[in-house]
Amino acid sequence: MEQGTAGPRPETRPWLPAQAGRAQPPGAGGPGAPRRPHRHSVRGQVLDALRRALTEGQLLPGEVYSAPALAERYGVSATPVREAMQQLAGEGAVEVVPNRGFRVSERSPRDLAELAEVRTMLEVPALVRLARAVPPERWEELRPLADEGVAAAARGDLAGYADADHAFHRALMALTGNCRLTQVAGELLRRAQWSAGGGSRPRTAELLADASEHTALLDALIAGEHAVAERIAREHLSAARHPH
Question: pTM (2 decimals)?
Fold first, then answer.
């Protein structure tokens, strides 16, 4: 997408609800008509749409995108786009380019390796501690999250799988009761996920193999096979076939 070029209208490519960010006259459409979302709701919708675009490679690493052009693309004002992009900048997905917009961050193989190493150092020891303290029924409560990942992978839905992957790992770390650990681990995962969009798109089989490791991990934890669970977690976090 060229900077400043208006993209498809929301009604032809609906990343956002058609009414997002558009004011409605009083009483327009009758009492059951959609109301204009609150500002924070529009920002949240834009943030979700931008995350999906980054994950799916619609916004390319190294390219600069202006807030007005993205606002036109999504059918909203520039303000929620700037707010969402500022949050993504804090997450490492984009970089601010003064007077131009936002450049999508690029990730080198070394960047990915370092992210995987840090995640392994944080998540694996936490999981080992949890394995000896969390009862099987608590692990079973995470099964729907693992199933969502498998379903998204089977559809070849890269963005959907990224969301399911993030939810699963966040739920794992949340069992520690350490909010900081949960937040940091989630941010590291997001930083690794952004890089996926700029490379070759993973095949459905690769996504399914990745998702199946969540299921295998739960199976080992529920069975009390702690050494197996640790091995699966290490291999999952360090896997090179699909960046987390």
Answer: 0.73
Instruction: Provide the Cα torsion 87, 89, 92, 96; round to 10°.
Output: 180
The residue from 106, 124, 140 where one domain ends is 106
Where are the alpha helices (H) located in the chain, listed in sequence order? 39-55, 67-74, 78-90, 109-131, 136-140, 143-155, 158-174, 179-194, 204-222, 226-238
Strand-pair partners of 102: 65, 96
Report the side by side order of strands in the sheet with 64-65. 64-65, 101-104, 94-97
Place of tokens 């990224």: 162
- Provide the token pair at 27: 């009483």
Structural domain includes residue 244: no
Same domain for 96 and 10, yes or no, is yes
CATH of the domain at 155: 1.20.120.530
What amino acid is encoded at 122 in this protein? L
- Token digits of residue 213: 């490791």
Dihedral sign for Cα atoms in the order 28, 32, 38, 43: negative
Crossing angle (nearest 10°) for helices 67-74 and 78-90: 120
Rounded Cα distance between 173 and 21, Å, is 35
**How many domains are there within the chain?**
2
For 200-216, the pLDDT digits (tens) are 567 888 889 999 999 99
Contact 80, 39 (CB under 8 A): yes
pLDDT in tens, 145-170: 999 999 999 998 888 999 999 999 99
In a domain, 38, yes or no: yes
